[in-house]
Design a protein that fits this description.
Blueprint (H helix, E strand, L loop, with lengths): L1 E5 L3 H13 L3 E6 L2 H11 L3 E5 L9 H10 L7 E5 L4 H8 L6 E5 L6 H12 L3 E3 L1 H10 L10 H11 L4 H8 L3 H14 L10 H10 L2
Helix pairs in contact: 2-3, 7-9, 7-10, 8-9
């Protein structure tokens, strides 16, 4: 796997490069701002971009805007965004195109190397990874929208899906059978009105509904 790292903090940027290298993942460019990230992507055509949300010159949402630019068009380049704080709208904006290959994690998750590398590989493979803290805050605020008809167990399953867990991983986390999880997922899709459609990523659309989009 070939990755571009975009992070303005020199120490964290260097740490990410070394962490990825230890996992057998090649960093083809490590840059400190959004425009440099876009240029690096054009030059190296990586499999994934790891992008900080707040970067120079204003340290507001330059990284997010660069990430969204990379998601436009046909390429839909996989992007894993890192943020210092929970900013729910950013996660929703990244997921809004209804496609996979996108993640939003708090920077503190990098300290859990196994979890971070798993998120990198999952997003690069077309999956999703939404930080558990974002999910917890949304649940605390009761932003359920169309998911209000889900049972408590179905809501729990959908919350784990939002983190990017597969059915098998959800089954392990809840200590239930894979068949039970498949049944819950099917019920979730049905209640959210998400019929089978090979052109759409139903898991991502379910997460969007959960986020209240």
């Amino acid at each position: 796997m070939r990755v571009v790292v975009a992070e303005d903090g020199v120490l964290l940027r260097t740490g990410l490069v070394h962490l990825l290298a230890d996992a057998g993942i090649e960093t083809v460019a490590a840059v400190g701002d959004g425009p440099a990230a876009l240029a690096a992507v054009a030059e190296h055509r990586p499999d994934l971009v790891v992008m900080d949300v707040r970067m120079p010159p204003t340290f507001t949402d330059e990284g997010l805007r660069a990430a969204l630019a990379l998601r436009r068009g046909r390429s839909r380049l996989p992007v894993l965004v890192l943020s210092q704080y929970v900013e729910e709208s950013y996660a929703a904006d990244l997921l809004a195109d209804g496609a996979g290959g996108v993640g939003y994690l708090l920077k503190e998750r990098v300290a859990d190397v196994t979890q971070f590398v798993d998120a990198v590989r999952r997003v690069a493979a077309g999956g999703t990874a939404v930080d558990p803290e974002v999910i917890a805050q949304l649940m605390a605020r009761g932003r359920r929208n169309r998911v209000q008809d889900l049972t408590p167990r179905e809501s729990e399953v959908l919350g784990l899906m939002a983190q990017g867990l597969s059915n098998a991983a959800v089954a392990d986390r809840l200590v239930v059978s894979a068949a039970a999880v498949e049944k819950h997922v099917g019920n979730i899709f049905a209640k959210l009105g998400l019929p089978t459609d090979p052109s759409e990523h139903r898991r991502v659309r379910a997460v969007l509904a959960w986020l209240g989009r």
